[in-house]
Input
Amino acid sequence: MKLISAVIRKEKLNDVLAALFENEIHGVTVTRVQGHGGETEKVETYRGLTVKMELTEKIRLDIGLTEPFVERAVGTILKAARTGEVGDGKVFVMPVEKVYRIRTGEEDADAVTPVLVGA
Ligand SMILES: Nc1ncnc2c1ncn2[C@@H]1O[C@H](COP(=O)(O)OP(=O)(O)OP(=O)(O)O)[C@@H](O)[C@H]1O
Ligand SMILES: [Mg+2]
Output
């Protein structure tokens, strides 16, 4: 299992969520974050201090999935989140040791398999 943690533009959230849904990736955590992409900083002087880090509002998506879904999910995010301008964001893929579904106690792949409501 992997955890995809993607930082994207706020304006791209709806596009990315729609694209993920179309690709059958349905479990996601959305967090508003602030970040800094390392671009050449605007250096300002404030009371003798040099302020270098300008933070930008971004969105982080966290998605837990099994290996077969990782490539598709990453590809979907790369495509839907891209404008081509600096600041489009980043996608991190991390190994996940364990996943538990709280309701059932299911573990790992069983715990991230989407459940069809009413099925
Ligand atoms: N190395 C990193 N570690 C953690 N978060 C990062 C890292 N790089 C970027 N981010 C997050 O992604 C956001 C957008 O980064 P950004 O798109 O500017 O990355 P970049 O590498 O500078 O790419 P670009 O050249 O397209 O601007 C940042 O505000 C930050 O939240
Ligand atoms: Mg940048």
About this structure: The domain at 6-33+57-91 is CATH 3.30.70.120 (Alpha-Beta Plaits).
